[in-house]
Structures are given as C-alpha cells and as structure tokens.
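Re: the request from the purification team.
They wanted to know what the chain is likely to look like in 3D before they choose a buffer screen. I agreed to run a prediction and write the result into the notebook, where they can find it.
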Amino acid sequence: MDLQEYIKNRYDGQFQKFVMEEINSVPQQQHIRQIIDIKEYLGKNQHKVNTRPNETFNGKEMEVERITLNYAKQIVQFTVNFLLGRNPVQLSGVEDVVQELNRVYKKAKYHKIDYRLLGDLVRYGEAFEYVYVKDGQIYSQVLDVAESYPIYDPETNEMLAFIQYYHSDYVDFYVVFTDDVVAKYNNSQGEDIRLVEQRPNITGLPIHYKTDNEVDSTRGHSPLNDIIDILDSMENLLSEAIDGFGRYITGTPVSIGQQLTNVELPKHGNGVGIALDDDADFKYVTNEFDHKAFESLYGTLRNALMDISNMPNILLNGGSTISNVGDIAVESIFYLSLIRANMNSKYLQDGFEQRLDKIRNVLAIQGITFDDDDYEETSFVFSPDMPKDTTQLIENIESLKGIGAISTESVLDNVSFLDKVSEMERLANEGVEQDSGNTVDE
C-alpha cells in the first residue's frame, strides 16, 4: 500500500484530515505521552517519590522527605559515552569509497549526530534522523522524538510518511515528509491548517532508529522504563528510612503515674524539669531502627538496578577500585556493558546503512558514483571505551607488529588516546606506505 492509497482508504482522500487525525490518534498520543514522561523525569525531577503526602506528627503536619536519586541520568551518560564518548564510529572498506564518505562525514560533523542519536535511543528507545542537502553539501538533522509521528503501513510495517508536529506562540506547525516532497503547514491564520511551503525531497523519509519492542515493531522501547520502578522503590525506601530515623532520634515522651506539678510542658521545650510521684516514671519511647535490614533491602535494589541497566556495579561504588587489574578481569567486570554496547551498535548500524544509501544517492546526483561491490564492502567500526592495561596492550601490539600480523590502521583502532582519521592522514602525509594491511618499512 502506498501513501495515496492509505489516505484514500482511511481518510477519503483528504490530506489535511489525514494529517490532523494521525497526529491525534490514540496510539500516537499515548506514545508521545510516554516520551514526555521520560523527558520530565530526567529534566524536571518529576519522580514518583515527590507525590508522597505529608504526615502528622506530634499534632502538627510534618514535611516528609522526598529523596530523588538521579541514577537514570548517570546510566544514560555512561551508556552513551561507553560506546561513542571517546571513540566515534569509523568507516572501513574500499579506500576510495571510505575516503569520499569520510569527507561527507567530516563536513557534516556526523560524530556529533551519532552521539545525539545514541542519546535518544538510550533515553527513549528511538531516534529520528533526516538527511538533507544544503548548498551542495550533505547534512543531517536529529528530530525531536516528542515531535515525531511516523506513519506505517499496517500490513507491511513500512514507513509511508512522517509528520513533525510542534506548537509555538499559539500556532501549530506541521512538517509532512513523503518520499518526494516536504510540505509545511500551520494554522497561524485560523483554526484550519494551510500549506505555507513545499519543496522537493531527494533524500526520502527520515530514518527511524529504534530498539527492540516486544509489543510494537514500529516503535522502540525505552530502556529507562525497565529501571524507573526500581529507582522509585529505592527513593521511597530511602525517604521513609530518613523520616523513620528522625522519629527514632526524637522519640515520644511517656509519663507514667502521677505528676507532682500541674504545669503543661511545652512541646518544643528544652531543659524543662518535672516533678514525679514516688511510683511514677518518665521516659522516651522509640521504635527500633533496623539499619541492617535497610542496608540489605537497599543493596538488593541497587544491585538489581546495576544488573538491569548493564552498568558495572563497581562504577557507582566509591569504596571499590579496579587498579592493577588485568584485561581479562576488566572484561568480566564490564561484560554486561559490552553486551549493551553491542546491542546499541546494532540499532545504530541499522540506521547508518540507510544513511549511507541516502548519501550515495545524493553523491550520484552530483556525479560521484561507486561500484556496487566496492560500496557493499563498507562497514562500521565501533570501539567501546573499555579500561585497558596500557603496558600489556603496547606489548601485544609490538609483538604483532614484529611478525607483520597487524596493520597501522588496526593499531590506531586500539589506541584510544589518538584520533584514527587524523592520524592516518598524518601518516599518509609523512609517506608511510601501506599495502593490504602491513606497513612496509623502507
């Protein structure tokens, strides 16, 4: 089913009706609401614990503790930077093809685009990229997921169109992407939307990056939804524990027997004396505060958080250290993080392949073409930022270079403090000859 048939069958061929009803459909609005909830959770600290009601203590309303833990932000930052923070994605393949693609990548600063795309994937489970041409140069725009409404064929799950909707200064704006046209609408002149701009679209629909979703294959699933409930429990447990400990310290005064004075004691008095009868008693009664039970519960929740988020537990434990640990031990510590990085690299690669196809089509229009076999050799190289034993790494590289079993390019792939692309250019300028993989020393 193409877009025209879709609009004809569902909206009687009325394009404006198609735009408005797709934006306001229940599934689209539910998904956008989930995206906004995550944005507000991360950006405005709108956590469940902040809805805790106040309590009454000693006859007065007391403000309860509402402790928010921003572990979610830390997890997002670690996940993104572990894969792309230090080592951007590199292209590998036939030299002429890679050289031309690297030129496009460098001009468009795609290392920054990739970083933002992964950030959206980790936060919201999906990301959107639109490739466009400006003044003959190829660029990409990362679209806000909260403004993104992809339209999919219900039979084939192929994207038919894409609508970007946002509201500003009391005006609704709609940008409708089809395979060959980008059209802009707004309602600045009244309630009905009107066409204000239309231009050819030579790069097709935006690219939809998404994680695996067991319920809806046309949408991603936010990894944060898997840990927010655990964080809610941690925040609630910590807040209630602090409240309970405050009452434990304060205690409740209890007087037993007949007082000899008839003076009403002030509720907040200090150093006030009272006279008691011979068989009377006065004491403070407190509930027991089982700190070991608290430590056990909180520790269990925290370990579950680290496991489900694929974070090395050692990173958020200030009392631990990984100094003087070999590479094998480090890999075991970061094993779950490597699994998550591999999954994220696959999600990104699915979109990167579409990006390269669009770039290739634009270059072909500009007269730059690639042989099919050469183009299909292009691949993406991801280098997670794993802690490494530098001494052992250098020794291994020297051994491999000694027997001619490693290329200069592979050496640079494993040296995190050097930029591979820049260093390869410098080596070429210095006249270092390279054959199929080994450096030839004159």
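For the purification team: The CA atoms of residues 395 and 401 lie 10 Å apart.
Please add any questions underneath this entry.
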